[in-house]
Design a protein that fits this description.
Elements lengths: L1 E8 L6 H11 L4 E8 L6 H11 L3 E6 L5 H11 L4 E4 L11 H8 L5 E5 L7 H17 L12 E4 H8 L8 H6 L5 E5 L14 H14 L3 H30 L7 H33 L7 E5 L2
Parallel strand pairs: 1-2, 1-4, 2-3, 5-7
Antiparallel strand pairs: 3-8, 4-6, 5-6
């Protein structure tokens, strides 16, 4: 059994070395490879990863030309890994490497994917809030089981690795790809540590991009929501029209209110703009996909 440990690196110069030292000692008796993908870091992460390739002969390093996003970097790592199982773990040391054994023991029971879950999450409150919102939308949009927590720290088997590699679109969402390919999924509790160095790279913009990827690329439910909302508004408009006609017949002296008209105009104008925006997202991302926008572009590789 060969284990691939895939690590997307972004501004992780201070944490990637301690993480590698921990991985090396924890898995000294297991055939392994570590695939580091530098996702356009602004610090000297690339130089640190190159040094790690020289120090450990089982390390592969892929340096991307710019920042493509965490999920794109993970897809890149999966395309380069050769193990029977692939563990995806962040570079921030919040997930202790020894917890990988819990994921490994669970997936060897025959599961395709095993997610980690936490008794206590020690992320910043903003990221916890974002994860909660993401969990709600994932349940609605991509059919995620309600009792399953989608975590970046997970393990997948070779069949799922090969399935993920078939996706060539520029906007991958790893959990969406996994859940549309299999329902043979499990999860286990693992320890989660507080961040000791640096700060989270998750921003509001990145969370919004993640939600849009889930919205637009892996579900047509937003379009169905638009259709249902449009039909509902049309029905309400017909009912209101009949009401006003009857009101006018019974009370000819009634004068329509100017405020009501303005409020309705603003409401429906905003609604139309929102719907056009959602439709535009679908069209725009489809255009970028058809235009062969790359998932990632490799600048250089080491140990590959």
């Amino acid at each position: 059994m060969k284990l691939s440990i895939c690590i997307p690196v972004y501004n992780g110069a201070d944490t990637i070395c301690p993480l590698m030292e921990n991985l090396d000692s924890t898995f000294s008796n297991i055939e392994k490879e570590v695939v580091l993908v530098n996702d356009g870091s602004r610090d000297n992460s690339a130089e640190v990863c190159k040094d790690l390739c020289k120090k450990y002969d089982y390390v592969k390093f892929i340096n991307l030309r710019r920042n493509f996003g965490e999920h794109n970097a993970v897809m890149c790592a999966l395309n380069y890994c050769t193990g029977d199982y692939a563990v995806i773990i962040d570079d921030d040391l919040q997930n202790p490497p020894e917890e990988i054994f819990k994921l490994l023991n669970e997936i060897e029971k025959g599961y395709d994917v095993v997610y980690s879950k936490y008794h206590v999450k020690k992320h910043h409150w903003f990221r916890n809030f974002g994860s909660k919102v993401n969990d709600i939308f994932a349940t609605w949009l991509i059919g995620k089981p309600k009792n399953l927590y989608l975590c970046s720290f997970k393990i997948i088997n070779r069949a799922m690795i090969d399935e993920l590699k078939k996706y060539k679109g520029p906007f991958p969402y790893i959990d969406g790809l996994l859940l549309r390919a299999t329902n043979n999924v499990s999860s286990v509790f693992v320890e989660h540590k507080a961040r000791t160095q640096g700060k989270s790279n998750y921003t509001l913009g990145k969370l919004l991009n993640l939600w849009l990827s889930m919205f637009i690329n892996f579900s047509i439910k937003p379009m169905r929501f638009i259709t249902i909302t449009g039909l509902t508004i049309s029905f309400i408009s017909v009912v209101m029209a009949l009401f006003f006609i009857v009101e006018k017949i019974l009370n000819p002296q009634t004068v329509p209110g100017w405020t009501t008209i303005i409020v309705l105009l603003l409401f429906f104008g905003g609604l139309q703009s929102t719907f056009l925006g959602i439709i535009g997202e679908y069209i725009g991302k489809n255009y970028l996909d058809q235009n062969n926008t790359p998932q990632w572009v490799v600048k250089e590789t080491f140990g590959v």
